[in-house]
Description:
Rossmann fold, two-stranded parallel ribbon
Amino acid sequence: xxxxxxxxxxxxxxxxxxxxxxxxxxxxxxxxxxxxxxxxxxxxxxxxxxxxxxxxxxxxxxxxxxxxxxxxxxxxxxxxxxxxxxxxxxxxxxxxxxxxxxxxxxxxxxxxxxxxxxxxxxxxxxxxxxxxxxxxxxxxxxxxxxxxxxxxxxxxxxxxxxxxxxxxxxxxxxxxxxxxxxxxxxxxxxxxxxxxxxxxxxxxxxxxxxxxxxxxxxxxxxx
Length: 223
């Protein structure tokens, strides 16, 4: 696998869960893996081990140092809001051009596999005029969309796919991550989405754990 962007239909859907599962799967087979989550909000500097960045570093087998946190997540903000709002709270503004340049440089220079985890959902505002969608379009690498199995996820997922299709973003697969206490099964959600996904692979992850078969399929689709 080369470089892969992991996005989602919304917040707390399972991007980090999938990224960490892929990291452990690939490292367990002797592959070199690098991972980035360039932007994080709701970042508590007193508990970095509880952050998505901390989880990624743990999966990579890297110590939770200040330098490692900065290399994986150069932009982090304290408020649990969109990056645009969280930066504003701190009197700051995320520089979209710098973000794109940082991401492109990482894609250009990486070894083995590079996983780039986005923030929130496809349309989360990064600045007053740019969203995650703009970021993905500017970078142009293959994308995996993570969705939940909660009631309403079908509409959210198909909307995201349509928006990305219109921007020519290369989506390789949809991964349905089983939602906690969902009234809808992950299988039903995946089957319904597949009806409208225009041949795009729709895979399922159970809360009991990501199967090697599913992780291997994602790697093959994104190779």
